[in-house]
Amino acid sequence: MSRLKAELARKKFPKLKANIGEVLSAADPESFCQLVWAVWGLQQSEPVRRAAEIISYPVEAMTNAIDSRWAIQPWEIETLMNLHFEAGRDLRRRLDSHDQFGLIGELCNRLRKLEDVESATYLDETSVLMELHRIAHRQFSWQRGFVNRADFYRYFYLYGIGNCAAFFDDYYGLSVEQFTKAGFALLALFSQRPLATKPLDFSAIGLNKATAERAASLMTISHAETGDAFQALLKNLDAEMQPIAYRPSLLRRKPIIAYGRHGTNLRAPLPPLIMLRVSGGMYYDLQPGGGAIRDEVARQFENYVRRFIATVMPRFNVEGEYRYNRPGLGTPVDSPDAIVLDRGRVAAVIECKATKLTFSAQYAGDPAVAASDKYDELAKGVFQLWRFFSHCRRGLTRHQIDDATHALLLTVDSWLSMSRNLQVHVLDRAKVKAKNEPGIELQDQKPIIFASIQYFERVLLQADEDLFLGTLAIARTEKFTGWLLPDIKKELRDDVEEKPYPFDPGEIIPWWDELNVESRRAQKGV
User: Fold this and answer.
1) Which residue among 68, 165, 275, 292 is least enclosed by CB atoms within 10 Å?
2) Can you tell me the distance from the alpha carbon of 405 to that of 257, in angstroms, rounded to the nearest whole number?
3) What is the pLDDT of residues 84-125, one digit of tens each?
4) What does the DSSP 8-state code read for residue 202?
5) Tens digits of per-residue pLDDT, 356-384?
6) Strand partners, 197
7) Which of 55, 51, 107 is nearest to 76 (CA)?
8) Crossing angle (nearest 10°) for helices 290-312 and 149-159
């Protein structure tokens, strides 16, 4: 991008942002939220009937085709809602098109132009690849979807049982079971209707009014507070100067907005974010628990990974972490978290990191600097793998490895999606740590395969043991650095029938089977 074009873009940007802000501030807040919900509902794979009844729209707009000229992407709707919070209400202006799809279409076109102009102020030849990293974080989670069995089971396993559940109950006066049950009820409600009114009555699913209100309050914010809350979020995350496309979203913390004089009208402009709030979002509820709770989450993640591999790949024997001595080298150390044996030989060694993907790690212009301490945690995981390989080579462990043994770093979140540069950065940091550890040689520094647990699971469900190991074999080559693991698997085969997710949420979530029974009864008219 030339300096002249960047300068012209900097001059245009404030006017474009002011123009979109003027329209948003003229909108009646509650009516605008209903319109946003209706546009979301209209463009589902099965359009929501109520959404089609309350707005006017061209027939072509009833589509979920991502490449349609009528498509309004959910991440764009999310950005518009946050700009709406920021703009506030200007009572001198008034819009009369709150029931028109065209209003959102026009705003979305303005938003796209705004984002394009703003990107011209900071993009250059050296930053384009990093931009792919930020685009991936903005879009991929929406494309994958938040409402799925695997994510919910996994997050409940990490954050909703044992010591984590006990802390949640003591701190919030509400059990995780009650919180998630209410969340599912609210998700079901807002997936079909734009409005819920307080007091909430969930007695049919065993939640009294006080419990339902308490659960809802953890994911609800009054519209009157949204402007200040959004500004506080920007400040707390040091995101005030972030590009519009990559700013934090208040709806991730509070997906439900309360309207009306007494806050009795509840609306969720993007219902799937309720699911995110009562699954992955529980991580933030546990933060007051400090290091002890974070350690518990880490242990749960390690257990989950070992269980998943052993269940889906029965030919493998999966061993856990163990402590071993280093004669003459100081204190004992722990092995990596999962050691996968195939017919007696070590096929893969896995280090698990439950470190939460921070906002700066996703969207900062230079995430490696902005989230330096978090990326150092990943580098530590790489170092731990290399140290273990060194110790195996020197006979200090109970395992032997060979040239074909794979090394994986698994994360709860997608830390390194679509970013070759960040992977190289983590490896460089690990090499610095390795230099300070006696005995680690170049031969011990095996190629590292980085993967989030979501993509790791997908590969295991779409492969047998041989295809899985074959995928890892090519994933460790230079050509595939920065690729997503499922895409690497497709280079070998893409015709394997996917296995079902192996775990039943009813095993750990008492209300899961109960609500399924109620759902089946409702479908039969019982």
Assistant:
1) 292
2) 51
3) 999 998 888 888 888 999 999 999 999 999 999 999 998 876
4) B
5) 877 887 777 778 787 788 889 999 999 99
6) 265
7) 107
8) 140
